[in-house]
Structure formats: C-alpha cells, structure tokens
C-alpha cells in the first residue's frame, strides 16, 4: 500500500484529470485505489491570517498577544508560541472552528511522544474554538499549530505559511490535500513511489513523467579517503553505493517535508532520517544513514552473519542471527540488517555531525527471509526490496538524498561516490511479434498504436534498418532477428525493457501492458470456439468421493486441514518418547521443508495426517462433547535421491467423546464403557471395507509394534495388512487409540480414549473389488457355537481367519461373541466363543455335514494354535 498526496505527485507529472478520474484510471490499470482521502475538509472557519503586531502578555511570561487580521477584521489572539514575527502569515481559527486538541493528544502518550493525528489509532480528541480570556486577556481566535490541523506532529510553534498566501482565503485552499490510498499487488513494487505512480499517470494521460532534478556541490575531501566498501556476498548484494556529508546539524525537518511525510503515512523524526524516508517515497530507493563517527574502521563490509552473532537494531531489540542473514558490518560488528533495519550502534542521533549515506540493491528472497524471521511486520524498506528495487536507482537515490540533506541540515559533501557494482546488467530485450496480440487478446491493434502505448510506458522500440538490424536510439545497440531463410519478420518489434520494469520478462508480459493501456473494459467478450475435449473421469477422484460418502454415512464429518504443518506439532505426536527420540521422529532433515515459510506454523509438508487430525479433535473438544471426523488428503514423504516427495493419498479418521444414544428409550449414557474406543473405530473401518467389497476378514488385522507407531497406545493398536501369495504382506493402514501422553501434549484429557485410523488410499483402490450381487438365500442358516481355549497372546483375528479358511464356502459367517479369562481357564490363557453360520444356497445342511466341518475346524485349531476345545 502507498499513500500518494496529489500535491506531491504533481511535481513529477502534470495532472489534467480530477482525483476521481485519476483513481478510476489507475484502478483499471491494476493500481487499485481503495480510498480518496481529503485533508482540510474539516477546516471550516480556518483562514489565512497575517500577524500585524506582537506584544508581551501583561500577566504571563510565556504568553504573547497577537493582533491578526483576515483582511476585513482584526482579531486578538493569545498564544504560547514564540516562533512568530510581525508580518508572518499563519492559519487562524475563528470562533466555531473545530481543531484537534493537541494538549490531550500529547498527554495521552505515556512516553511523552506525539502521535501524528493522521496516523493515530482510536479516537482523536477535538475542541471547538470559542472567545475567552487567558490570564485576564481576551482571545477572540486561535493561531493554529500543525498538530491541531493534523498535517504533522509539530506542536511547539504556529504554522508559518508562504508569504504569497492571500490573506482571508480558507486554509483548505492553501494546505488542503487530496491523497490516493493505493493497494498494490506484489508484482507492482515499481509503483511504491511518487515517481512510479507518476509514470502510470503519465502513460494514462499522454504526459511525460519527470524525475527530480539533482544538483550537488562536492566541496569536501575525496570520499574514498574517508571510507571504503567491500562486498563479500555479491549474490545477495549486486550493488552498493555510498556518499559522505560532513558538518550537518541535526534538527526538525522543514514543514514541507514533515507535511508530505505525514500525508504519505510516515512519522517525521529528524531532518537526516526524514530525508532517507522522503527519497524512498519519492523515487523508490530505500536509503540508510550511518553516523560516520561511530563506525569502526571506517569500513563497510557486506557479509553473511556468523552463527550466533547478535545485533541490536534501531528499535532497540536484540536479535540472534544465523548464516542466512546478510549484514552490513564495520571492522568489528554488524551495523545493519541488509535491506531490513539499521543497527542501534550507528543510528543518527542529536549529536551526529558526519553522515555516511547508503543506497544498495539487495536480494529480494534474502530480505524477505530475514524480515519474516526477525520481525512481525516488514519495514517500509523491506517491503520495497522484497518486491525488487531497480538496480539503477542506487546512485540516483544516494545523490538525491545527499542533495536534500545539505539543503535541510547544511554540511559539506565529500567528493565522489563509491559505487561497487561488479557485474553491470544489460537491458532486457524482448522479441515481440505483433501477431501475438490477436492470438492472446482476440483484437487487432494497429502497429503505430502499439508502439505509442509501449513508448508511453517508457519501453524503447528499436528501428528496423535496411540491413535487417534493429537499432535503439540511445546507445545505437544493434540486435538482429532472422527467420525463414534470412527473411526479416517485418511485423516484429524489438522492445527494450526499462530497468525498473522487473515484472516484464516475456512476450505475455508485453501483451498485458498493451491490454492495460488499451483498457480491459474495451476488450470485447467472445465465446470460446471449437469443441470441448471429452471429459476424462478420474478413477481416483471417483474412489475418493465414494470414501467420503461411506464416511458421512457412518456419521463422521469431513474436515480439511493445511498440508503445511509445524515441526512442534509433529513432535507432539511423539510425546510418549524421550525428547531425543521425539526429535529423531520429527527430524527436519527427514521432512520436506519450505525454503521460505510464512510462519513457524506452516514450515514443513506433513508426513502424516495424524497431527492435523489431533489438532482438529483438540480444537473441537473445547466446544463439543463428541467428535467424529475424517479427512481425505495428501501426505508428503521424502524420497532418497529424488528431488520430489512421494505424495500419498491418505484417509484419516478420529473418534472421541461419548457414543451416540442407541434409541429414544436410552437417552443417557452413564459409564466409561459408553465412550468411543478402539472397537468403535474398528467397526467404522470394517463397514468401509465391506462397502469396498474387501471385508476386513479378507485382510489381516495384526498387532503393531509400539516402536513403529509410538503415538498409539501399546496393546490398543493394530495394522491392517493385505496378504500376498508372492511376497510379504502389505500395510494398508493402522488403527488404534492415541497414547495418553500424546493426548496430553495436544491439551486433551490423557484418560480419554481417542481412536484414530490412517489408511493408504492408493493401496485401498487396488484392493477394492467390483460390486458383486447374489440372490437372497431361500433356506434358513444352520448355526453352532464353538468355544476354544488358546494362549492369551493369540489374536482372536487369527483364530477367526483359520475358522473361515477351514469352513470353506459352506461357512457363511463367523462371529466372536464372548471372551473369558479366569477360573477354570488356566492362567495366561483365554476362552473364545464363536458362532458359526452355515448356509448353502441350494439346500439345508444335515447334522452330519455340519459335524464334519466343525471337526475339521477343531483339528486345525488344535494343530496350528495348540487350542483346546471346551
């Protein structure tokens, strides 16, 4: 965002349109004007007055009595300001005028500092001018300070106007301001300055943009005798320019600079710092001023910070640095964070006499990384460097800054300019066939009009010479394009891009510039031509939609979480382990980490959905008793020797809280057994697999090793494996209850049983079978109960699987309905009772047939599991 006062803007371009027309035109060209702010609109009954006489107050040493005329009447004004002389023209507020109450505004600041009313947050106090007496002397009007008008922070004296200001004219006609509040997208960093906006207005109105005139007198010794510059990281700092001014006098800036800075949204500080901000807002080049006498050396070195190095910045905060941070340093320490903020050791103070002024070009990614890591909000300088600053601006900015510093602070400028620029960049040239315009925009624009549009935007168009070469005007550089057997393509333009247009690199960018100039609103709407390609249905998409339908049918709600997570969140999944083990599981080296994360909460690609689903459960349990959720999403697994991760589609489920009531006749659940647990989620998974025609009985449910899944409760977790005749079983997914310490790490009750499951969709889709239909049985099933005693370590699922395999096609269903431990069952053993249902399609089994199958089942269980029948 940038605030553009039109009175400032008109110094660089002639304004022929109204503020509303300028705002509309800029918005149509991509520079969205969010608001037109008018200062001075509330200055009713504030006029230009002229001081005719100044007398001492008879009853107060710190007050004076003024006689001020508005051209038709003379008013007596009592004031404490001592900066006026007879003949000065000042703002005078007549009875009934409404002004900002500067006394209250200053009193509200605990540190004694004044906040500019234009920037102040919250309510601004006002007062209404009335006739009254001050220490016994009548005052019929008010001589106005800048703070009371809201145009700057100055409250120590009365505003002195231009001697040419006409007496009696409303002040709004003299100092009133119209400000455009412009919202800029990240690719429009070139417009973060008055000159940048002026170029857009010039292109829109057909005028020429003007750069500020720079004229300086260098009367001091050579700058190279006073200071030197070395760049040790040219990849992060391609250019560094420096000038020196000696003998400056620190003080407040002139009123016109303060007024412009305040209107643009910046707080005036002192004349030297204000100049650096002024130039940054004017031409777009951030500058930094060093107190030359505080430098050690004096030498400036651009280098990477040393691991563990510290710096105190001008906001008086200490920062621990890493080797990823770029520093400007002197011989002994860092004196500034490159492109972000200066150091406190060398900042400009009231005692500063000599100033070294830096204008540099920094790597945008490095500035963005440093700014995000060390500061909550980007500085104005960082905001510009992140969006790329024109590398040719460094010398322009430094020279303009030195010029203004001498004007407002005096001093002698050292001769010369240090400019370390090891690899000068050549202008970028784009070969632009005019045939691209109708192809991409659907309209035809004459060549002359295209050339006019591009030249209005300060692009250089080369001339085609008879020799087939293209020649640019300024430096006579020649570029040749030959196509189709040495035939020059006559409808092709060679376009040289201005250095400040870093957003224009290819032909499509030039098309966009032409569309902006032509007017998006003028490009006609056209229907698409040709036939739409046949729709390709994604089998994975259809399968995932089926999973969603099944989960929603089971009573679960879908959630969607960010694929970017924090390392801290992943480490919470391993809270049941030692800190070293937890760090090992969530080792950043084994994760896909963003090179430039926006925050620590979104720094790595998730290797599992369990962390995200646990955060969702924790957040929802604050407001709801029951949570039943699922998510279909990707996980990102790092692959050895591969540049890209393995992106696995995954289904994750979670249940927590009380079970739903079974019926209207059982409205309450009163004991711990009525809470969701492992078996509830196992039922959901079984239902899912049944609906996929791959029931869990055709897979293998086996206990998990806690070392492999430490976030799950030991003894309450199982893996779902797909059996394979040609190799080892394949893990389809896991199901279990969360470890109590993991639940506690997510601020959940460690005694609560939270069931989770994570299934690999890409394996599930290979296992799912087509829908199979069979007729409804005409004859009833024959059932028998089978009770056996096995070792306590033998999984019931393994027994059930053997029963199914041995029973064959005639065995329709096997249900475990009882588990018993205790007398007379021996220790370390358990009794399992199964109900067997036999149901052939064409007949009813005889007792002898059922007995034979049962005996075969019992024999296998005794032989393979050491079971005993009861």
Looking at this protein, list some descriptive labels.
870 residues, single chain, 6-stranded mixed beta sheet, 7-stranded mixed beta sheet, alpha+beta
What features would you describe in this structure?
The protein has 870 residues and is of the alpha+beta class. 26% of the residues lie in helices and 27% in strands. Strands 32-36-37-41-40-39-38 form a seven-stranded mixed β-sheet, with helices on both faces. Strands 13, 15, 16, 23, 24 and 25 form a six-stranded mixed β-sheet that branches. Strands 5-4-3-6-11 form a five-stranded antiparallel β-sheet, with no helix packed on it.
Q: State the helical fraction.
A: 25-40%
Mean pLDDT: 85
**Main sheet attributes: strand count, strand direction, barrel closure:** 7 strands, mixed
Please give the order of strands in the largest beta sheet: 32-36-37-41-40-39-38
Give a count of the beta strands, DSSP E runs of length 2 or more.
45
Low-pLDDT residue intervals, each spanning 5 or more residues: 108-121, 476-488
The proportion of residues in beta strands is: 25-35%
Given helix and strand content, the structural type is alpha+beta
> What's the helix count?
24
Q: What's the alpha carbon Rg, rounded to whole Å?
A: 40 Å
Query: What's the end-to-end separation, in Å?
Result: 82 Å
Describe the global form: elongated
């Amino acid at each position: 965002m940038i605030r553009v006062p039109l009175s400032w803007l008109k110094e660089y371009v002639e304004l022929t349109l109204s503020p509303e027309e300028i705002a509309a035109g800029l918005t149509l060209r991509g520079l969205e004007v969010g608001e037109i702010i008018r200062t001075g609109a509330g200055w009713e009954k504030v006029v230009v007055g002229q001081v005719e006489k100044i007398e001492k107050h008879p009853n107060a040493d710190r007050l004076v009595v003024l006689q001020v005329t508005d051209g038709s009447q003379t008013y007596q004004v009592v004031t404490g300001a001592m900066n006026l002389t007879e003949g000065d023209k000042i703002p005078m507020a007549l009875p009934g005028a409404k002004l900002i109450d500067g006394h209250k505004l200053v009193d509200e600041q605990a540190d004694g500092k004044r906040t500019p009313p234009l920037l102040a947050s919250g309510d601004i106090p006002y007062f209404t001018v009335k006739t009254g007496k001050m220490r016994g002397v009548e005052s019929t009007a008010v001589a106005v300070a800048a703070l009371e008008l809201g145009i700057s922070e100055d409250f120590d004296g009365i505003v002195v106007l231009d001697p040419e200001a006409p007496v009696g004219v409303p002040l709004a006609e003299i100092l009133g301001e119209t400000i455009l509040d412009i919202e800029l997208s990240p690719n429009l960093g070139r417009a973060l300055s008055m000159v940048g906006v002026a170029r857009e207005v010039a292109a829109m109105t057909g005028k020429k943009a003007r750069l500020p005139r720079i004229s300086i007198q260098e009367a001091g010794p050579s700058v190279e005798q006073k200071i030197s510059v070395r760049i040790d990281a040219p990849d992060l700092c391609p250019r560094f320019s420096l000038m020196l001014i000696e003998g400056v006098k620190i003080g407040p800036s002139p009123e016109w600079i303060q007024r412009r800075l305040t209107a643009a949204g910046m707080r005036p500080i002192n004349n030297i710092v204000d100049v650096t901000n002024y130039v940054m807002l004017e031409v777009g080049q951030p500058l930094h001023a060093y107190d030359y006498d505080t430098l050690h050396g004096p030498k400036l070195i651009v280098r990477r910070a040393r691991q563990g190095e510290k710096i105190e910045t001008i906001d008086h905060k200490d920062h621990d640095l890493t080797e990823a941070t770029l520093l400007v340093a002197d011989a002994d320490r860092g004196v500034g964070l490159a492109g972000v903020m200066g150091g406190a050791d060398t900042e400009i103070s009231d005692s500063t006499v000599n100033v070294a002024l830096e204008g540099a070009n920094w790597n945008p990614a490095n500035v963005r990384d440093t700014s995000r890591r060390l500061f909550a909000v980007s500085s104005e300088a960082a905001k510009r460097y992140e969006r790329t600053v024109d590398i040719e601006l460094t010398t322009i900015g430094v020279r303009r800054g030195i010029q203004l510093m001498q004007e407002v602070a005096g001093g002698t400028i050292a001769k010369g300019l240090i400019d370390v620029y090891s690899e000068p960049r050549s202008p970028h040239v784009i070969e632009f066939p005019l045939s691209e315009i109708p192809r991409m925009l659907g309209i035809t624009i004459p060549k002359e009009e295209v050339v006019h549009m591009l030249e209005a935007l300060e692009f250089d168009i080369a001339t085609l010479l008879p020799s087939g070469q293209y020649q640019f005007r300024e430096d006579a550089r020649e570029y040749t394009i030959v196509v189709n057997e040495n035939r020059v393509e006559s409808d092709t333009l060679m376009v040289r891009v201005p250095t400040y247009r870093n957003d224009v690199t290819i032909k499509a960018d030039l098309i966009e510039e032409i569309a902006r100039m032509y007017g998006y609103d003028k490009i006609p709407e056209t229907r698409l031509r040709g036939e739409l390609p046949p729709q390709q249905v994604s089998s994975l998409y259809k399968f995932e939609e089926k999973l969603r339908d099944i989960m929603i049918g089971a009573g679960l709600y879908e959630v969607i979480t960010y694929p970017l997570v924090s390392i801290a969140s992943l480490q919470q999944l391993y809270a049941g382990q030692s800190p070293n083990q937890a760090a090992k599981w969530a080792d950043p080296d084994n994760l896909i980490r963003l090179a430039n994360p926006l925050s620590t909460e979104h720094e790595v690609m998730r290797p599992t959905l369990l962390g995200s689903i646990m955060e969702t459960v924790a957040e929802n349990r604050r407001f709801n008793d029951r949570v039943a959720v699922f998510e279909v999403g990707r996980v990102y697994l790092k692959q050895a020797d591969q540049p890209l991760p393995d992106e696995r589609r995954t289904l994750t489920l979670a249940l927590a809280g009380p079970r739903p009531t079974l019926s209207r006749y059982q409205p309450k659940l009163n004991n711990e057994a009525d809470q969701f647990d492992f078996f509830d989620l196992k039922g959901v998974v079984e239902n899912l697999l049944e609906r996929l025609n791959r029931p869990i009985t055709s897979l293998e449910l086996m206990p998990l090793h806690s070392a492999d899944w430490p976030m799950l409760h030991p003894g309450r977790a199982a893996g779902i494996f797909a059996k394979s005749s040609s190799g080892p079983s394949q893990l389809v997914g896991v199901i279990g209850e969360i470890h109590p310490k993991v639940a506690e790490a997510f601020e959940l009750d460690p005694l609560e049983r939270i069931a989770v499951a994570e299934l690999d969709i890409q394996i599930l889709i290979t296992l799912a079978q087509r829908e199979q239909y069979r007729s409804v049985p005409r004859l009833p099933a024959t059932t028998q109960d089978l009770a056996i005693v096995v070792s306590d370590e033998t999984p019931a699922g393994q027994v059930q699987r053997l029963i199914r395999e041995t029973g064959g096609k005639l065995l329709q269903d096997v249900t475990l309905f009882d588990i018993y431990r205790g007398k007379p069952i021996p220790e370390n053993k358990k009794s399992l009772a199964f109900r067997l249902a036999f149901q052939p399609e064409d007949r009813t089994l005889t007792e002898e047939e059922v007995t034979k199958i049962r005996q075969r089942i019992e024999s296998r269980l005794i032989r393979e599991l050491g079971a005993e029948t009861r």
